Amino acid sequence: MILDIETAKQVAKSLLQIKAIILNPEESFVWASGWHSPIYCDNRISLSHSEVRTFIRQHLVEGILSKYGKPDVIAGVATGAIAHGVLVAQELGVPFVYVRASAKKHGRKNLIEGKVESGQSVVVIEDLVSSGKSSLAAVQALRDSGFKVNGMGAIFSYGFEHARKSFDEENCELFTLGDYDTLIDQALETKYITKDDVEILKVWRKDPSNWNK
């Protein structure tokens, strides 16, 4: 669920302008999962643009306070959401931790980096939600360590139906600053893509794992 439509429009406009999101329906990208996609999103690029970075931080904080209230801790999902999570935690004046994709093989073999105190409330920050698998794995790791997960805030989501169901099943509320539908509308309005491209992008989202095989 997006925070609000005006925020979603501004996020779409900004991410397209700085090329954090690239739409190329005619020549697909290949994700780490092996999926072929007409869209590629790398929100880490926003960190190099101070106005965009500030906008994201301010609206993530606004969303957290309005949806969940001030938590005891902010947690970022490694690696893409670590920096944004730190910025949000700094703005809120609360501690920060981050969740690794897997536990370290050496030292203390941490899965969660930072001070962990059972019973604390936490809001998770994610840069991008696709299938939701890695995001929800981080949520589970935090719960297993004794945190009370209030919810998650993300910069952008593709809006896959199976991801929405997964969040519902895991009882984890999610809000995003930007979403796929608003992005496509903004890209069409600014003539970044054509109406024919829109149809390709809509077909891809319905069945991304089998698209363009």
Question: Helices and strands in order, then pairings?
Answer:
Blueprint: H1 5-17, E1 21-23, E2 29-30, E3 36-37, E4 39-41, H2 50-67, E5 73-77, H3 82-92, E6 96-99, E7 112-113, E8 121-129, H4 133-144, E9 148-157, H5 161-169, E10 174-179, H6 180-189, H7 195-206
Parallel strand pairs: 5-6, 5-8, 8-9, 9-10
Antiparallel strand pairs: 1-4, 2-3, 6-7
What does this structure look like?
The radius of gyration is 17 Å and the shape is globular. The protein has a 6-stranded mixed β-sheet, with helices on both faces. A two-stranded antiparallel sheet has the order 1-4. It has a two-stranded antiparallel ribbon with strand order 2-3. By secondary structure, the protein is of the alpha/beta class. It has helices at 5-17, 50-67, 82-92, 133-144, 161-169, 180-189, 195-206, and strands at residues 21-23, 29-30, 36-37, 39-41, 73-77, 96-99, 112-113, 121-129, 148-157, 174-179. The mean pLDDT is 94. The protein has a single domain (5-210), classed as Rossmann fold, CATH 3.40.50.2020.
How many DSSP H or I helices? 7
Strand residues, percent:
15-25%
Query: Percent helix among the residues?
Result: 25-40%
- Classified by CATH, the class is Alpha Beta
- Overall mean pLDDT stands at 94
Q: Just name the CATH architecture.
A: 3-Layer(aba) Sandwich
